[in-house]
Each structure stands twice: as C-alpha cells, then as structure tokens.
Amino acid sequence: MNAGTKFAIGAALIVGSVGYLMASGVKQTGQYFLTPTELSQKIAVDPSFYNVGMKVGAHVVRGSVTKDVATQTLSFQVTDGSARYPVVFHGLPPDTFTDSVEVVVEGRLQQDGVIHATNVLAKCGSRYESVPKA
Amino acid sequence: MTVLGNLALWLALLVGVWGALAGFVGGRQARPDLAHSARRAVFAMCGALLVAVFALEWALFQHDFNVEYVAAYTSRNLPIFYTWSALYAGQKGSLLFWATVLSVFGSLALVLTPRRHAELLPTVAGVVALVASFFISVMLFGHANPFQRLPYTPLDGSGLNPQLQNPGMVFHPPMLYLGYISITIPFAFAIAALLAKRLDADWLVAIRKWTLLSWLFLSIGICLGMWWAYVELGWGGYWAWDPVENASLLPWLTMTAFLHSVMVQEKRGMLRKWNLALIIGSWLLSIFGTFITRSGVISSVHSFTQSSVGYFFLAFLVVAAAASFTLYAIRLPLLTAETQLESMVSREASFLFNNLLLIGIAFSVLWGTLFPILSELVQGTKVTVGPPFFNQVNVPLGLALLALTGIGPLIAWRRASLPNLQRQFAVPATAGGFTLLVLLVGGMRDLYALLAIALGGFVAATIVQEFARGARARHRQYGEAYPLALARLLGRNRRRYGGYIVHTGIVILFVAFAGMAFKTETEATLRPGESASLRSPYGHTYTFTHLGISQYDALNRQITAATVEVRRNGKPIGFLTPEKRQHVDGLGRPTFQPSTEPAIMSMLREDLYGVLGGTVDGTEQAVFRFTINPLVWWVWYGGMVVALGGLIVMWPGGSPAARRAQAGYTVRLVGEKP
Fold this sequence. Notes:
heterodimer, A: alpha+beta, CATH 2.40.50.140, 2 domains, 5-stranded mixed β-barrel, 2 helices, elongated, B: alpha+beta, Tick-borne Encephalitis virus Glycoprotein, domain 1, 6-stranded antiparallel beta sheet, 4-stranded antiparallel beta sheet, 11 strands, 62% helix
C-alpha cells in the first residue's frame, strides 16, 4: 500500500469522525427553537410534546413580570401576539431583562402548562445602541 | 467638520474606484502608467480616509451632539479614553475604521513589498481599493454615514453602553478588526498571483509576514474578547460559543492551518491548491464574521443592531466568493504538486492531518453557528445547538490536535526511520505518561481533563527536548555557555523556535481550559453577617461572608456595592466587592439598564468570582452568585505566551540569504544524491 492510499485512509478516518461527532452532537444537544404559536401547534399535533428541552423566542408580556428576589424566582409570561405561555425561572436574570424586551427562554414545557426555564436570555436588538432620546 | 468628513468619504470612494480599475487593468496589460496610478490611488484613499477619521474624532471630542453618531455613543461625562474609542464602538464608525485601516495596510504593503514581487503589486492595489471602496459605499449608500446630522441638537448624548466601558473593550474590537482586515493583504496577493499565473512558492514568501501579522492580531483580539467577557459580562466564563465569538475563531483556525501547510509547500512543493484555498477561505470567513456581527441574522450578545447593512455584506460575500473561486477553478490545472507524499510517518503527513483537524473544527463551528438557519431552510423548524454541541464535537478534535502539536515537530520530513522515532519520542512519551499517573493518583477522574493535561505534559516535554538539544549542539559546536546558546538558538531560528513558544502557549491554554471542567458555583441570598461556602477542586473550603451594602456616586454612574469577606479554610484572605451600576447622563438621568460588575479574586490556581444579583426590597439583604473557576489566570498567561511566540516569529531581521533558503529548498534524505 503506498503512502497516498494510507493517507487517504487516515484522512477518511478524520473526516468520518468529524462527521460522526457533528451528527451525534446535533442529535443529542439540538433544541427546537420555537415561537409560542409553533409550540402550541406542536402540542396540538403531538400531545406528548412535554418535558422536551427547547428554546422559545418571544416578547415578554408587559406588566407580567414578578420577581421574588429572596427566593430568586422570576415569573413572567411570553407571547408572540397569539399564543401565550407562563414562564418560571430560578436564578439571576440578565441585566437587560425587563418587561419590554424580547427573550429567548431555554427550558421545558411541563404538563402544568408552564415553561420551566433553565436559562433566560434577553435578546435586546439595541444592546449596544441606545435609542437617542428625542 | 461633517462637511469635511463627507467630502473625504466621497473623495476616498472616487479614488478607490479609480484605483481598482487602474490596478486590475494595469496589472493585466502590464502598463506602468496605470500601475503607478493605482498605487497613488491607494495612498490618496488612505489620506482621505485618515482625514475622515480625524473629522469624526474632532466631532466626538467637541461633543457635537448634532451629529447623530456622536449623540448615540458619547456623552459629556464619558471618560476621555472611551470618547476616543467611540470611533469604533458603533456600526457606522467601525465601517470607517475598517476602510481606513485597510487603506493603511494596503499602502504599507505597496511600500514594503520587495521589488521582485513588483509584477503583483498593481493587482494588489486594485483588490485593496476595491474592498475599501465597498466599505465606503456601505457608509454612503447603506444609511451608515457616521457624519449624518440630526434635525435638532440634544443637550447631551446618550453615552456609551456601560458594558463597553471597560479597558478590554477599548482594545478588543480594534485588535479583531486589525486581524480581519489584514487578511485582505494575503488575499490580494493570492488573487494577483492567480491572475498573473505566478504560482510558485515565491509569492508565498511575500505574504508570510502578513498572514502571521493577521493571525497574531486575531489571536490577541480573541484573547482580549475572552477577558472582556469574563470580567464584564458576569456570567462567570470566558467562552460561550456565541455566533460572534465563533465568527472570530473561524478565520483564526483556517489561518493556523495555512501557517502550517505553507511550510509543506515551501519545503516539498506540495499543497499548492490547498494553500490558495485556505487564504481565499480565510478572507471570506473574515468578511463572513463582519457580516454576522452586523446583520443580526443570528442573534448574539455581541452583534450590532439589526440593520440593512447586512444585505450589503451578504451580497458582497456572495459575489466575492463566486469571483475568487471561479478564478481559482480556472487556474487549478497550473497548481499541480511538484512532489508526492512518500510516507505516512513524515512531517508533511502530520501537517496534513493537523490541517484536516483544524478545518474539521472550523467546519463544525461554522455548521453549528449556521444550524438554526440551515435547519429552518431544510425542515421548516428552527433547531439550535449550543455550547454542549460545540464542546462535544470540538473537545475530542482539539485533543487530537494537541497530540499532533507534540508529534509533528519530532517527525522528520519525507520519511522517518524507526530509530529516529525512538530517539525523539522516548522522553516526551514518558513525561506524558508520568503526568497522567500523577493526576490519577491525585484523584482526578474527568477523562477529557486527564487527557488534556497529560497530552500537555507530552507536548511540553517535546518542546523542552527540542530547546535542550539545540542548545547542546551550539554548546558543543561553538563552545557557547548554555544561556547564550539558548538565546542564539532562538535568535537565529526565529521561525522554528518562536513556533515552539507559540505551541507552549497553546499547551498552557489547553490545560487552563481543562481546569474549567472543575468549575463550581453557588447562589445564595444573604443578610449582613450571613455566609455561603464553596469547596474548591483542590479541597479547600472558601467561606463568603456578606458584610453589608454601600451606595455611592462615581463619575457617570450610581453604584450599589456589596462587601464580602472571603476566608480560605477559616483564614481571611481578602474581600470581594461586586457591584450593580446604574449609569446616568450629564443631567443625572438614568441611561441604559443597570449593569453587573463582577468582583474577581484571581490566584494562580483558581479565581473566585462574585456577582451581586441585587438587593431585596431596598434592604441590605442581597442575592449573590459565587463561582470558583480553576486555572483561569493561565488562560491570560497562555494567550500572552502565544502572542510573544508570534512576535518572535514575526520579528524582522535575519540574513536575506537565510530567508531565501527557507523558501523552495528541498529536503534530502541521508545518503541521497542531489
């Protein structure tokens, strides 16, 4: 066997393992990124779609935020205009979290209809660009 | 001054477009008049853009809030340091910064490149002028003109985002930009070489320093970004596989691959197609990174606001990729290898595997970054992957790469013999095994961390062995004392031994990354006098006692700070004072959301990281998060060693004969006739 063939085998091994690692990585760690409407549709089609890790991107419903600093519990509602879900989160919310931002909630929807979040990201489009005050 | 700025931008665009035309036509038809004209056009563009930068800085320092950009990013009470850096803090200003720096680099390349590459220079000038003109047109036609005036004059500007008010943020973006921008120079040479059909190893020599320079800037920029994220964002880590972080890593990976594979081309005349593809790919990835940062197409904490500027970049990216790869494809027949791979156990084979791994990592990072978009296109549902995906894929690949870092330099070119292998690997392999044993006895059980540190021991031993052998040889041959022999060894073979120093930095980084496998944290709500405790991976117990809250005003912010006493195994070792800051403008009105300022106690073995989450209903009861981050200090140290090694490799000098000898010389086996 010449060196070129041997090298091709080695290269195929590397390319194969990169491919395998990527495929299994997506399979094991991929999460749906849904809007509340898409989530409610999923639930309607597949009633067992609970307790699945996912991300939900939506607006926080204005005035729905309650913070209990002592127990570090944050509850609020998210909506995309049509569907609406309550969210409970334990931990420190990001600095940019207010009741008027877009958020990405990472967590699981449980049978009680509440999204139990493990992470809340405030997706603030103008993060580094404050709006000039008129 | 905005009149001057606008004028300068228009002038720069006009000479830029002319320079592009003259450069390409002059290069193709070998017309000296056009070639000269293109060269002067780049200089003129550079001058005009520097005037524009001056005009913008003038407006910033004059607090001319009638200029929209000045009002949006500065305020009267902003420290002067940050007023200066507001030049590149926003979308519009950073476009100006990009174009200006590119024209400066382009001018330098035209001046500094030796005469024997003169044939390539008109086209290089053309490419630089074209790319810079694109950036200027985005400013002028993409609603991104930094000299835009407002219909009214605000009393004060809205100030710079507090998270950007950090020394790391002053240097991190320009370093990354310098890295992104300087890749354009090797790319321009690649295009020129392709057009001129001068595809020998010679043009590679002309761009080696530029690729190194841009790699060095990217490395420093990425490290500074990690440092900024760590000390400013308060989530307790330095790398989150965020799309924008990934975007900066991508060209770094392909450039690293190029810096290795280029040696194979120089010594063995192989990989000519591959190297050109890497240069073109690196440049496209740097434009892709700029696109990701600006378009908001993938949400990220680092990106600028979503804007139409993204479409300009997407279009540019597509056109540039199509054009450069078409040219590449046309020239492929000219790019055949001069020699064949002779053995799997050879330096060139190990470089090939190193390249495959680096590109594999780059591909998986690109894939993961784009996955939300790809999955939505294919399946109709957005699926995202996060840090677990990137870690799961890249930790094994990274470890394989680390192993090659040790193996590659020890294997001879062309083909290695068994005695050669035994002689080279006996000590390092023993050192690696010994490290593993010590860690196992010490109680470490995390597989990846064990592998990372043991491989680190192996690679470190190979480097020490190389230095020791080289110094001993000089000692024997010239009778030099060992310290002198070591210094001369480094000075006379900067490329090789500087490279080893970079590898040392990489080893330190890997070991430091492995430390994060043992991160521990706790969240606690404490009244004054109450405490929380954490056990460090080394077995110490840290106790954090909340002493109280203080509130005070500083230059442009109101601060709420908690004082926390830290004890290690009961003995006081210092205080942490994490803060919450509310920034205010010159009139005392709050600007931005309150921001978190973590307190960090950095030690050789671990960092203590405290975050103040907030106070409970205005009392002194407060919510904290305390984290123990092992070996973080070594990340910054490793980054510095990498940069130092890069500088040594880059340092000008060495005899011209030696430099020429490095390019295009062939490797002869022992006993082989020339």
